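It is worth pausing here to work through a concrete case rather than discussing structure prediction in the abstract. The textbook approach is simple: state the sequence, then state the predicted structure, then interpret. We follow exactly that order.
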Amino acid sequence: MNKNNYHMKCLKLKTVSLTFVFLYILSGCVENKDSSGLEYMPDMYRSPAVEPYVDYAEIRGKHDEEKSMKLSAMVPPLSTIPYYGTDSQTVSLMLPHSRRPNVEFKQTHGLNDYLFSTSNEYELAKMDSVNPLNLTKENSKEIFDNGKKIYTSMCAHCHGEKGDGNGPMVTSGAYNGVPAYSDRKALSNGQIFYSIYYGKGAMGAHGPLINKKEIWTLVHYVRKFQDKDYGAFEVEETKKEPVETNKAKK
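Step two, the predicted structure:
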């Protein structure tokens, strides 16, 4: 075979092959700029599973364009109690909070799907002095470590790393009036919980963001800002030890 003819045939074959590949790729293009085009392997683009926080905008086969780009996390029905196992202490801790938000919180804090009260239950929470998440010598380190993690991610940007009300959001000038925890020692455990759970002043509600056990953990951590010896069982034991006097030695 003539070498020139051979090279010509190879060149034609390559040209036809490249043209075919180009046209094949081009066929995947569509006019819709938001579309990824023709998907040759859909499973590589998106999970076949239904994602809980995405509204696929499919209502009886009809596509709702207004919802296709919106998150639509659904909340459980009002008064639904989540399943937290069979440990009675944990279940009791996670039950719906006994104190209700004031009806004004619908407007001031955007709360919905709550049972509201016309009373000032923040003031009533003064009587809630006991933290149901019991702090002991054995679990204190775990509680304070968890409290630090939650505080760092949820609170420190406003309240500051040291709880002095000088977080980055305050020092930047975005917010002001964030109190130091050392000025709020008179608050009961229940009032601190209430403020975090439902929000207070300019602070929004954190109940939808963290669960009740995590909030009670935060209450313990906040107390640590107010009293450096809070939860320091070694210090308490030292104070209880009898002091040996010179008379006793004799």
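Step three, interpretation. The radius of gyration is 31 Å. The chain has twelve helices and two strands.
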